[in-house]
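Q: Here's a chain of 170 amino acids. Please give me its 3D structure as tokens.
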Amino acid sequence: MGRETNKLVQVGRISGLYGVHGWVRIFSYTEPRENIIQYRPWHLQGPAGLQAIEVVVGRRHGKSVIARLAGCDDRDCAAKMVGLDIAVYRDQLPATESGEYYWADLIGLVVRTTKGIELGNVDHLIATGANDVLIVKGDREHLIPFVKGAVIHDVDLDQGFIEVDWDPEF
């Protein structure tokens, strides 16, 4: 399977308006939040398809991020972008260290137990504060904590699987 460097990875969403000069509020999935501003261009995904757009300026603003996008100079223009997903190409993200993974790299991987029982595929992940949780969909849905060693025994991006110590009935 391996990592696809030309794959689009969702890094945030335009969540609202800021002011009257075309600025938008961003709900960022990056850590720290304001890192989303560094990735350029953004690719906005919505019902009309995919559109590449440049970030003119952006910054952290309280608990969110605000940005002004090229060609958007008023509130009416910005309002049309609310709800659009923000994606960048995978190769725009910093390389990960050994044992580190972007959530986007884990989505779609096959999850199987240490006894070889296939539980399904990673559908998405959620952050709970204590640890991230894999949402695995197969014959049923499994919520598996992403705790290396105790639960997660192996992640093989090249072979496309995650091995877990998990009861298939749970």
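Q: Can you summarize the key feature?
A: Residues 17 and 79 are 7 Å apart (CA to CA).
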